Amino acid sequence: QVQVVESGGGLVQAGGSVRLSCAASGSFRSLRSMGWYRQRPGNQRELVAEISSDGETDYDESVRGRFTISRDGANNAMWLQMNSLKPGDTAVYYCKFQSTWLAYWGQGTQVTVSS
After folding, report:
1. For a Cys-Cys bond, which of 4, 14, 24, 46 suits 106, CB 3.0-4.6 Å?
2. Do the beta carbons of residue 57 and residue 50 sit within 8 Å?
């Protein structure tokens, strides 16, 4: 059974940086993409950044130029480098591994940006 664990969240001042990590135990069949999502207070979960199996990336407009997603597909790991953080980035951040048939989610890590 695959387990996915995020780490690296915490409290940071506006303008600061945080690096989130995500690691999955076990192996995937037909892994298609990896991604980071967030759920801000009172909002639905939303896609922040995604990276495909061939390395193509996509970002939500609100984070483009500030966040960078990277991965190590061979070791089932990914990271989200978050720079120039804003209070509006405060959320629980989740990582997801997407195979052809299933999505594997982590438990989430809280990032709080103070003004």
Report:
1. 4
2. yes
Q: Strand pairing partners for 35?
A: 50, 96
For 5, the token pair is 């664990």
- Closest by CA to 10, choosing from 91, 83, 77, 71, is 91
The dihedral formed by the CA atoms of 62, 49, 85 and 41, expressed in degrees to the nearest 10: 80
Q: What is the pLDDT along the chain (115 residues), one digit of tens a residue?
A: 789 999 999 999 999 999 999 999 987 778 889 999 999 999 999 999 999 988 999 999 999 999 999 998 777 899 999 999 999 999 999 999 999 889 999 999 999 999 9
Q: What's the token pair of residue 99? A: 């195979």
On whether the CB atoms of residues 111 and 86 are closer than 8 A, the answer is no
User: What does residue 74 show for φ and ψ, rounded to 5 degrees?
Assistant: -65, -30
